[in-house]
Amino acid sequence: MGLFRYTRKTFARELALLAGAVLFAVPVYILVVLSLKTPGGVAAHPLSFPTNPQFGNYSKALHFKAGGTTIIGGLINSLIITTCSIIGLIVVGSLASYTIARRPGKLSTATYIAFLLGVIIPFQLGLVPVYVAMRHLSLVPSYYGMILLNIGLLMPLTVFLYTGFVRALPVEYEEAAQVDGASLTRTYIRVVFPLLRPVTATVAILAGVITWNEFFVPLVFLSGSKYQTFTVALYSFVGDFVTQWNYIFAAVVISIVPILLFYILAQRQLIRGFSGGVRG
Predict the structure, then answer these.
(1) What ranges in 103-229 are assigned the alpha helix state H?
(2) What CA–CA distance (Å, rounded) separates 231 from 206?
(3) Is the pLDDT of residue 280 over 60?
Protein backbone atom coordinates (compact mmCIF):
# COMPACT_ATOMS: atom_id res chain seq x y z
CA MET A 1 0.00 0.00 0.00
CA GLY A 2 1.28 3.45 -0.88
CA LEU A 3 1.24 6.40 1.43
CA PHE A 4 -1.77 8.66 1.32
CA ARG A 5 -1.11 11.81 -0.71
CA TYR A 6 -3.01 14.99 0.07
CA THR A 7 -3.68 16.44 -3.38
CA ARG A 8 -5.63 19.36 -4.75
CA LYS A 9 -8.50 17.03 -5.57
CA THR A 10 -8.62 15.94 -1.93
CA PHE A 11 -8.68 19.56 -0.83
CA ALA A 12 -11.47 20.32 -3.31
CA ARG A 13 -13.52 17.37 -2.03
CA GLU A 14 -13.09 18.55 1.55
CA LEU A 15 -14.24 22.04 0.60
CA ALA A 16 -17.28 20.59 -1.14
CA LEU A 17 -18.15 18.49 1.92
CA LEU A 18 -17.74 21.49 4.21
CA ALA A 19 -19.96 23.57 1.96
CA GLY A 20 -22.58 20.82 2.01
CA ALA A 21 -22.37 20.62 5.81
CA VAL A 22 -22.88 24.37 6.13
CA LEU A 23 -25.81 24.20 3.72
CA PHE A 24 -27.51 21.53 5.80
CA ALA A 25 -26.68 23.37 9.05
CA VAL A 26 -28.41 26.60 8.02
CA PRO A 27 -32.01 25.33 8.58
CA VAL A 28 -30.98 23.94 11.97
CA TYR A 29 -29.46 27.29 12.94
CA ILE A 30 -32.62 29.15 11.90
CA LEU A 31 -34.80 26.71 13.82
CA VAL A 32 -32.79 27.00 17.04
CA VAL A 33 -32.40 30.79 16.80
CA LEU A 34 -36.11 31.40 16.27
CA SER A 35 -36.95 29.13 19.19
CA LEU A 36 -34.87 31.35 21.53
CA LYS A 37 -36.44 34.69 20.55
CA THR A 38 -39.38 36.71 21.75
CA PRO A 39 -42.34 37.18 19.35
CA GLY A 40 -41.07 40.69 18.58
CA GLY A 41 -37.55 39.41 17.94
CA VAL A 42 -38.85 36.81 15.50
CA ALA A 43 -40.55 39.51 13.44
CA ALA A 44 -37.80 42.16 13.66
CA HIS A 45 -34.55 40.16 13.41
CA PRO A 46 -35.34 36.55 12.47
CA LEU A 47 -31.81 35.44 11.50
CA SER A 48 -29.66 37.18 14.12
CA PHE A 49 -28.65 35.27 17.24
CA PRO A 50 -30.63 36.59 20.24
CA THR A 51 -28.72 38.72 22.74
CA ASN A 52 -31.03 37.48 25.51
CA PRO A 53 -31.95 33.85 24.69
CA GLN A 54 -35.41 32.88 25.94
CA PHE A 55 -34.82 29.32 27.13
CA GLY A 56 -38.15 29.47 28.91
CA ASN A 57 -39.83 29.12 25.51
CA TYR A 58 -39.16 25.38 25.68
CA SER A 59 -40.88 24.80 29.02
CA LYS A 60 -43.83 27.01 28.01
CA ALA A 61 -44.24 25.23 24.70
CA LEU A 62 -44.27 21.80 26.37
CA HIS A 63 -47.18 22.68 28.63
CA PHE A 64 -49.46 24.33 26.08
CA LYS A 65 -52.65 22.33 25.52
CA ALA A 66 -53.12 21.37 21.89
CA GLY A 67 -56.24 19.48 20.86
CA GLY A 68 -56.89 16.66 23.31
CA THR A 69 -53.53 16.79 25.07
CA THR A 70 -50.51 18.96 25.81
CA ILE A 71 -47.36 19.09 23.71
CA ILE A 72 -45.47 17.07 26.33
CA GLY A 73 -48.37 14.60 26.36
CA GLY A 74 -48.04 14.27 22.61
CA LEU A 75 -44.32 13.58 22.99
CA ILE A 76 -45.03 10.85 25.53
CA ASN A 77 -47.68 9.33 23.25
CA SER A 78 -45.27 9.39 20.31
CA LEU A 79 -42.58 7.74 22.42
CA ILE A 80 -44.91 4.96 23.57
CA ILE A 81 -46.35 4.29 20.11
CA THR A 82 -42.96 4.45 18.36
CA THR A 83 -41.17 2.22 20.88
CA CYS A 84 -43.88 -0.45 20.95
CA SER A 85 -44.19 -0.38 17.15
CA ILE A 86 -40.44 -0.92 16.74
CA ILE A 87 -40.44 -3.83 19.20
CA GLY A 88 -43.39 -5.46 17.43
CA LEU A 89 -41.81 -5.02 14.02
CA ILE A 90 -38.50 -6.51 15.15
CA VAL A 91 -40.08 -9.54 16.83
CA VAL A 92 -42.69 -10.41 14.20
CA GLY A 93 -40.71 -9.22 11.17
CA SER A 94 -37.53 -11.10 12.02
CA LEU A 95 -39.42 -14.36 12.66
CA ALA A 96 -41.42 -14.06 9.44
CA SER A 97 -38.31 -13.24 7.42
CA TYR A 98 -36.34 -16.11 8.92
CA THR A 99 -39.10 -18.53 7.97
CA ILE A 100 -39.32 -17.15 4.42
CA ALA A 101 -35.54 -17.25 3.92
CA ARG A 102 -34.91 -20.69 5.43
CA ARG A 103 -37.94 -22.54 4.03
CA PRO A 104 -37.71 -22.05 0.24
CA GLY A 105 -40.72 -23.06 -1.79
CA LYS A 106 -43.74 -21.75 -3.64
CA LEU A 107 -45.53 -20.68 -0.46
CA SER A 108 -42.51 -18.75 0.82
CA THR A 109 -42.02 -17.09 -2.56
CA ALA A 110 -45.69 -16.11 -2.78
CA THR A 111 -45.60 -14.73 0.77
CA TYR A 112 -42.49 -12.71 0.03
CA ILE A 113 -44.05 -11.28 -3.15
CA ALA A 114 -47.16 -10.35 -1.16
CA PHE A 115 -44.98 -8.40 1.29
CA LEU A 116 -43.23 -6.66 -1.60
CA LEU A 117 -46.61 -5.61 -2.98
CA GLY A 118 -47.29 -4.09 0.42
CA VAL A 119 -44.26 -1.83 -0.10
CA ILE A 120 -45.54 -0.68 -3.49
CA ILE A 121 -49.30 -0.30 -2.98
CA PRO A 122 -50.30 2.94 -1.16
CA PHE A 123 -51.98 2.41 2.19
CA GLN A 124 -54.39 5.28 1.51
CA LEU A 125 -56.31 3.06 -0.94
CA GLY A 126 -57.60 1.01 1.98
CA LEU A 127 -57.87 3.78 4.57
CA VAL A 128 -61.67 3.82 4.87
CA PRO A 129 -62.23 0.05 5.36
CA VAL A 130 -59.31 -0.10 7.80
CA TYR A 131 -60.77 2.76 9.82
CA VAL A 132 -64.23 1.16 9.85
CA ALA A 133 -62.80 -2.20 10.95
CA MET A 134 -60.67 -0.68 13.71
CA ARG A 135 -63.56 1.42 14.96
CA HIS A 136 -65.78 -1.68 15.03
CA LEU A 137 -63.10 -3.40 17.16
CA SER A 138 -62.90 -0.39 19.53
CA LEU A 139 -59.29 0.31 18.54
CA VAL A 140 -59.94 3.97 17.63
CA PRO A 141 -58.59 5.93 19.35
CA SER A 142 -56.16 3.87 21.44
CA TYR A 143 -52.50 3.00 21.82
CA TYR A 144 -53.15 -0.61 20.83
CA GLY A 145 -54.87 0.29 17.59
CA MET A 146 -52.17 2.74 16.51
CA ILE A 147 -49.38 0.31 17.38
CA LEU A 148 -51.02 -2.56 15.48
CA LEU A 149 -51.63 -0.25 12.52
CA ASN A 150 -48.00 0.90 12.43
CA ILE A 151 -46.77 -2.68 12.63
CA GLY A 152 -49.01 -3.64 9.73
CA LEU A 153 -48.01 -0.65 7.60
CA LEU A 154 -44.26 -1.12 8.10
CA MET A 155 -44.17 -4.92 8.10
CA PRO A 156 -43.56 -5.18 4.30
CA LEU A 157 -40.47 -2.97 4.53
CA THR A 158 -39.28 -4.85 7.62
CA VAL A 159 -39.64 -8.25 5.96
CA PHE A 160 -37.88 -6.99 2.82
CA LEU A 161 -34.84 -5.83 4.83
CA TYR A 162 -34.67 -8.85 7.15
CA THR A 163 -35.13 -11.44 4.39
CA GLY A 164 -32.27 -10.07 2.30
CA PHE A 165 -29.98 -10.09 5.33
CA VAL A 166 -30.96 -13.60 6.49
CA ARG A 167 -30.32 -15.03 3.02
CA ALA A 168 -26.78 -13.64 3.20
CA LEU A 169 -26.07 -15.42 6.51
CA PRO A 170 -24.19 -18.75 6.34
CA VAL A 171 -26.50 -21.60 7.32
CA GLU A 172 -23.58 -23.51 8.90
CA TYR A 173 -23.99 -21.61 12.20
CA GLU A 174 -27.53 -22.93 12.60
CA GLU A 175 -26.58 -26.45 11.57
CA ALA A 176 -23.77 -26.52 14.13
CA ALA A 177 -26.15 -25.42 16.89
CA GLN A 178 -28.70 -28.07 15.93
CA VAL A 179 -26.00 -30.75 15.89
CA ASP A 180 -25.18 -29.75 19.47
CA GLY A 181 -28.81 -30.42 20.41
CA ALA A 182 -30.29 -26.94 20.25
CA SER A 183 -33.94 -26.70 19.25
CA LEU A 184 -35.09 -24.51 16.38
CA THR A 185 -36.34 -21.87 18.81
CA ARG A 186 -33.11 -21.87 20.80
CA THR A 187 -31.08 -21.75 17.61
CA TYR A 188 -32.96 -18.69 16.45
CA ILE A 189 -32.72 -16.87 19.79
CA ARG A 190 -29.10 -17.71 20.64
CA VAL A 191 -27.49 -17.93 17.18
CA VAL A 192 -29.52 -16.26 14.43
CA PHE A 193 -30.99 -13.21 16.12
CA PRO A 194 -27.63 -11.91 17.47
CA LEU A 195 -26.29 -12.09 13.89
CA LEU A 196 -29.19 -9.89 12.78
CA ARG A 197 -28.06 -6.96 14.92
CA PRO A 198 -27.01 -4.70 11.99
CA VAL A 199 -30.28 -5.08 10.10
CA THR A 200 -32.23 -4.88 13.35
CA ALA A 201 -30.69 -1.45 13.94
CA THR A 202 -31.61 -0.49 10.37
CA VAL A 203 -35.21 -1.54 10.90
CA ALA A 204 -35.36 0.23 14.26
CA ILE A 205 -34.06 3.52 12.85
CA LEU A 206 -36.19 3.52 9.70
CA ALA A 207 -39.34 2.45 11.52
CA GLY A 208 -38.61 4.89 14.34
CA VAL A 209 -38.15 7.86 12.03
CA ILE A 210 -41.21 7.01 9.93
CA THR A 211 -43.46 6.40 12.95
CA TRP A 212 -42.18 9.42 14.89
CA ASN A 213 -42.71 11.79 11.94
CA GLU A 214 -46.00 10.26 10.74
CA PHE A 215 -48.77 12.83 10.51
CA PHE A 216 -51.60 11.67 8.25
CA VAL A 217 -52.35 8.34 9.95
CA PRO A 218 -52.38 9.69 13.55
CA LEU A 219 -54.44 12.65 12.33
CA VAL A 220 -57.13 10.29 11.05
CA PHE A 221 -57.07 7.74 13.88
CA LEU A 222 -56.08 9.81 16.96
CA SER A 223 -56.95 13.46 16.30
CA GLY A 224 -58.67 15.22 19.21
CA SER A 225 -58.05 12.39 21.67
CA LYS A 226 -55.68 12.11 24.60
CA TYR A 227 -53.68 9.57 22.59
CA GLN A 228 -52.73 11.92 19.73
CA THR A 229 -49.05 11.99 18.81
CA PHE A 230 -46.72 14.96 18.87
CA THR A 231 -47.14 15.76 15.17
CA VAL A 232 -50.92 16.04 15.53
CA ALA A 233 -50.59 18.01 18.77
CA LEU A 234 -48.15 20.38 17.06
CA TYR A 235 -50.60 20.82 14.18
CA SER A 236 -53.31 21.86 16.66
CA PHE A 237 -50.79 24.03 18.47
CA VAL A 238 -49.91 25.90 15.27
CA GLY A 239 -53.59 26.51 14.57
CA ASP A 240 -54.19 27.97 18.04
CA PHE A 241 -50.95 29.95 18.41
CA VAL A 242 -50.07 30.84 14.83
CA THR A 243 -48.55 34.20 15.83
CA GLN A 244 -46.26 32.75 18.52
CA TRP A 245 -43.64 31.26 16.27
CA ASN A 246 -41.00 31.18 19.00
CA TYR A 247 -43.04 28.59 20.94
CA ILE A 248 -43.80 26.64 17.79
CA PHE A 249 -40.12 26.39 16.82
CA ALA A 250 -39.20 25.50 20.41
CA ALA A 251 -41.64 22.58 20.26
CA VAL A 252 -40.16 21.46 16.94
CA VAL A 253 -36.61 21.52 18.36
CA ILE A 254 -37.72 19.39 21.31
CA SER A 255 -39.34 16.86 18.96
CA ILE A 256 -36.14 16.48 16.94
CA VAL A 257 -33.89 15.68 19.91
CA PRO A 258 -35.10 12.10 20.77
CA ILE A 259 -34.99 10.72 17.22
CA LEU A 260 -31.69 12.50 16.51
CA LEU A 261 -30.03 10.95 19.57
CA PHE A 262 -31.38 7.54 18.61
CA TYR A 263 -29.97 7.89 15.10
CA ILE A 264 -26.55 9.02 16.35
CA LEU A 265 -26.30 6.03 18.69
CA ALA A 266 -27.27 3.50 16.02
CA GLN A 267 -25.88 4.99 12.81
CA ARG A 268 -22.95 2.56 12.57
CA GLN A 269 -25.29 -0.41 12.74
CA LEU A 270 -27.53 1.31 10.18
CA ILE A 271 -24.71 1.39 7.61
CA ARG A 272 -23.79 -2.23 8.31
CA GLY A 273 -27.42 -3.26 7.96
CA PHE A 274 -27.78 -1.61 4.57
CA SER A 275 -24.52 -3.11 3.29
CA GLY A 276 -25.59 -6.59 4.44
CA GLY A 277 -29.25 -6.36 3.61
CA VAL A 278 -28.87 -5.56 -0.08
CA ARG A 279 -27.04 -8.80 -0.78
CA GLY A 280 -28.88 -11.94 -1.75
Answers:
(1) 106-120, 127-136, 143-168, 172-179, 184-187, 193-195, 197-213, 216-222
(2) 17
(3) no
